[in-house]
Write a structure and sequence with these properties.
alpha+beta; cytoplasmic vesicle; 57 strands; membrane; single chain
């Protein structure tokens, strides 16, 4: 079978469509309708782009004349109309026939159109001669339904008529050259075969038959049966080896044009089919129905192409085999993803329509498969070496061996073009896969066989789409519709089991494979380079898998098929459906290195490393890291970020320190500090925290390590840098209450300062309250006035005098510094009663005594009546603040 992919590209609902045409260069489809309109649809944008209201009778014929920018129409009002499709103007109109016009044919080179009509005539019109009728062709005895010009001889044309005949005419001669008879009812449609090899015509008729005629010996060579109603349109596809027929039974049938086998039946539920149009150079086919029109794209998704290890590419363009050689490109600079400027050489045409082309492993032969046949050619000269019928063909790992799947139950193995063995796999053969082992797919799953003796190696419950073996035969990728698996083939275990028959079950050798991983991606095409599996995915990524890691090489803008990798070029080659070849750079050194790492062959890896360019080193390093080789990754990476990460993970303080110095990044210093602390490298930690300006961290470090000197430095540094909380805490921890107070004052925290003073430095209260009052008075005079200075209102602050003494007592009894180890011996402040302890203490400083005296004076002058307690009632505003 041809296995054509059929994709619907446009569905345009409309009134009944009587004719369709495709524009040769614009993405346009012309449809003439039964209701009198003619429409142009853009099948790329899916929009109706132009409409011509021709008349109110059916328009049964409409054609593009691209070289004149015209649409020519023929309608039941017997008029031919010519429109300019750019301006939509009607250029010309004339009465062409005395009955309905059925068909228009445009001459490919001359300024002619041919028209046919229910008046039984065919007429030739010359637009260069003011649309004069240069000839009338007479001979049919019923409506002339369709006329087509012979693509191989533009002076010849054929006509189909309801008089049940087909006539072939010559321009310049008014009577037909000959008549083909055979249909039992009226003939509706006709087409020429455009390939060079056969002088064929095809016709469809109301007898529901399609006939293929040899117009040289004038015989019907084939009759296609199947349509259940009148056949209304037929087409020999100008590119693909297919015949398309449409019928009033609502179906479109696709037949193989050489084997005449029915390949496909399309039913889009749009009622009767009226017309079909295909176009040279395009895979689009337009179809007209009772309920609208459709464009389908026909063709195989995957191009038939193959490349050998030296860069010789062979592909099939339809049945023509062509060759292109990468080497012939010379030293032209190649950019990733750009189409390669390849010279193409014709190799001749193939007897079958190629669906796949495949080089054998050593590249000496190519096999072409299609139409249930295979032909093995020499790759150089395309001389056939062997052929036969086969549903599928696969090469073995050994270049002289291959297998074919002859039917759903029989597989044959050949060696040196001679059949070696044929066997019937237990559960049938729905597909076969070449490579190191012979894979056979059945409903039950996949079975791997030994090429040598067809012994079962292992059955696996999986439905593979593709199988790719690495060159060494140690790794295999099995791709399914949903994901792909990487398996390791354990050949020693297989050999051992074959020897001892231990661990062999009905499913084969249990230990034959080890699953290394499953990846949720759909592989379209793939190949191995060393232990790296390169593939294209269903979402058009070009990736490779190595050791559980996926590396994306490129995002492709369309579906591409891997052709091969050429290590010498460091390039990967891919082809697309249109036979364009593109390439992507992929360094062989990187692949080799990764392969060596996967095989734990570090001496090899070290040898390869110098050949890996600097800019690729980090990628390789990431790979090493993922494989668990962090030390090696650190040595290989050139990315400071990556190296720093690795150094941290490995506890490499020195390297990390160096990188942090270079990077000058706070974040790095912080990370390094953490590591240093965890490694008890406090000196380093301190430096790092300083660099990171991490005062909180420094405070923790300084206090935890009981380093008073550091706390002191921290306090000063923090204050300088405005890290007030840390500064305050550091002063406070050192008992530097004055500094704490000054810090609060300096930072505008006057109420806090006042309360600090009230608690720890009563001697300062007066000063602070004054400041507080001044400041507060700016926003609220009343509130400011209600702040009482304890030294003025000692009655409100009992024990103030004792507090002064205690303050002085504490100050003088406190040693400057105590070693941290004494901490357990010191009674916590909250457990002390300082007022008790200070009883009887005589302050020695002049300052303190003076203050006490002042206080006494103040108290003497105090007039209690002055205080209006009703004032001390904070209003809403202050509460809000
Ligand atoms: C004919 O049908 C088409 C589409 O169905 C519509 O756009 C057009 O207006 C119709 N023309 C007439 C003359 O009714
Ligand atoms: C058709 O007939 C014309 C004139 O009768 C003749 O010149 C021409 O060669 C014929 N063509 C074919 C293909 O028989
Ligand atoms: C006519 O030619 C075809 C090949 O195109 C051949 O198969 C057929 O037998 C020929 N018929 C006659 C009657 O010569
Ligand atoms: C098939 O064609 C005949 C005329 O030959 C016609 O009478 C008949 O209605 C057509 N069939 C259908 C289903 O339209
Ligand atoms: C193979 O080649 C031989 C002679 O070159 C030719 O007769 C034969 O038809 C060819 N067969 C195929 C299938 O190409
Ligand atoms: C006065 O108080 C405000 C808060 O109300 C504060 O922001 C400001 O810094 C203070 N001014 C002084 C000089 O302390």
């Amino acid at each position: 079978p041809l296995r054509l992919d059929i994709k619907r590209k446009l569905t345009a609902r409309s009134d009944r469509v009587k004719s369709v045409d495709l524009h040769p260069t614009e993405p346009w489809m012309l449809a003439s309708l039964y209701n009198g309109s003619v429409c142009v649809w853009n099948h790329e944008t899916q929009t109706l782009v132009k409409t011509f209201e021709v008349c109110d009778l059916p328009v049964r014929a409409a054609k593009f004349v691209a070289r004149k920018n015209w649409v020519v129409t023929g309608a039941d009002d017997m008029q031919i109309r010519v429109f300019n499709y750019n301006t939509l103007e009607r250029v010309h109109m004339f009465e062409a026939h005395s009955d309905y016009i059925r068909c228009i044919a445009v001459h490919p080179t001359q300024p002619f159109i041919l028209t046919s009509s229910d008046d039984m005539l065919i007429k030739l019109w010359d637009w260069d001669k003011k649309w004069s009728c240069s000839q009338v062709f007479e001979g049919h005895t019923h409506y002339v339904m369709q006329i087509v010009i012979n693509p191989k001889d533009n002076n010849q044309f054929a006509s189909a008529s309801l008089d049940r005949t087909i006539k072939v005419w010559q321009l310049g001669s008014s009577s037909p050259n000959f008549t083909l008879e055979g249909h039992e009812k009226g003939v509706n449609c006709i087409d020429y075969y455009s390939g060079g090899d056969k002088p064929y015509l095809i016709s469809g008729a109301d007898d529901r038959l399609v006939k293929i005629w040899d117009y040289q010996n004038k015989t019907c060579v084939q009759t296609l049966e199947g349509h259940a109603q009148n056949v209304s349109c037929v087409s020999f596809h100008p590119e693909l080896p297919i015949i398309i027929t449409g019928s009033e039974d609502g179906t479109v049938r696709i037949w193989h044009s050489s084997t005449y086998r029915l390949e496909s039946t399309l039913n889009y539920g749009m009622e009767r089919v009226w017309c079909v149009a295909s176009l040279r150079g395009s895979n689009n086919v337009a179809l007209g129905y009772d309920e609208g029109s459709i464009i389908v794209k026909l063709g195989r998704e995957e191009p038939a192409m193959s490349m050998d290890a030296n860069g010789k590419i062979i592909w099939a363009k339809h049945s023509e085999v062509q060759q292109a050689n990468l080497k012939a490109m010379g030293d032209a600079e190649i950019k990733d993803g750009e189409r390669l400027p390849l010279a193409v050489k014709d190799m001749g045409s193939c007897e079958i329509y190629p669906q796949t082309i495949q080089h054998n492993p050593n590249g000496r032969f190519v096999v072409v498969c299609g139409d249930g046949e295979y032909i093995i050619y020499t790759a150089m000269a395309l001389r056939n070496k062997s052929f036969g019928s086969a549903q599928e063909f696969v090469w073995a790992h050994d270049s002289s061996e291959y297998a074919i799947r002859e039917s759903n139950s029989l597989v044959k193995i050949f060696k040196n073009f001679k059949e070696k063995k044929s066997f019937k796999p237990d559960f049938g053969a729905e597909g076969i896969y070449g490579g190191f082992l012979l894979g056979v797919r059945s409903v039950n799953g996949l079975a791997f066989y030994d090429w040598e003796n067809t012994e079962l190696i292992r059955r696996i419950e999986i439905q593979p789409k593709h199988i790719f073996w690495s060159d060494s035969g140690e790794l295999v990728c099995i791709a399914t519709e949903e994901s792909f698996f990487i398996l390791k083939y354990l050949s020693e275990k297989v050999a051992a089991a074959q020897e001892t028959h231990e661990g062999v079950t009905e499913d084969g050798i249990e230990d034959a494979f080890e699953v290394l991983g499953e990846i949720q991606e759909i592989v379209k095409t793939g190949l191995w380079v060393g232990d790296c599996f390169i593939y294209t995915s269903s979402v058009n990524r070009l990736n490779y898998y190595v050791g559980g890691e996926i590396v994306t090489i490129a995002h492709l803008d369309r579906t591409m098929y891997l052709l091969g990798y050429i290590p010498k070029d460091n390039r990967l080659y891919l082809g697309d459906k249109e036979l364009n070849i593109v390439s992507y750079s992929l360094l062989v050194s990187v692949l080799e290195y990764q392969t060596a790492v996967m095989r734990r062959d570090f001496s090899m890896a070290d040898k390869v490393l110098p050949t890996i360019p600097k800019e690729q080193r980090t990628r390789v390093a990431h790979f090493l890291e993922k494989q668990g080789f962090k030390q090696q990754a650190l040595a290989v990476s050139t990315d400071p970020e990556h190296r720093f990460e690795l150094a941290l993970q490995l506890g490499e303080l020195k390297i990390a320190y160096q990188l942090a110095v270079e990077a000058e990044s706070e974040q790095k210093w912080k990370q390094l500090a953490e590591l240093a602390i965890s490694k008890c490298q406090f000196g380093l930690a301190q430096e790092c925290l300083h660099h990171a300006q991490d005062y909180g961290g420094l405070l923790l470090l300084a206090t935890a390590s009981g380093n008073a000197n550091m706390v002191n430095k921290l306090a000063e540094g923090a204050e300088k840098d405005g890290k007030n909380n840390v500064a305050f805490m550091s002063y406070f921890l050192q008992g530097k209450l004055d500094s704490c107070l000054e810090l609060l004052i300096k930072t505008g925290r006057l109420p806090e300062a006042a309360f600090l003073a009230r608690t720890y430095l009563p001697s300062q209260v007066s000063r602070v309250v004054k400041l507080w009052r001044e400041n507060l008075s700016k926003v609220n005079q009343k509130a400011a006035e209600s702040l009482a200075d304890p030294t003025e209102y000692e009655n409100l602050f009992p024990g103030l005098k004792e507090a002064f003494v205690a303050e002085e007592y504490v100050k003088q009894s406190l040693p400057d510094l105590r070693p941290a180890r004494e901490y357990p011996l010191v009674t916590p402040n909250e457990e002390r009663n300082l007022l008790e302890e200070a009883k009887g203490f005589e302050p020695s400083g002049v300052m303190a005594s003076q203050m006490l005296l002042d206080l006494e004076d103040d108290l003497d002058n105090l007039d209690l009546e002055d205080i209006d307690t009703t004032d001390i009632n904070l209003d809403e505003e202050i509460l809000d603040e």
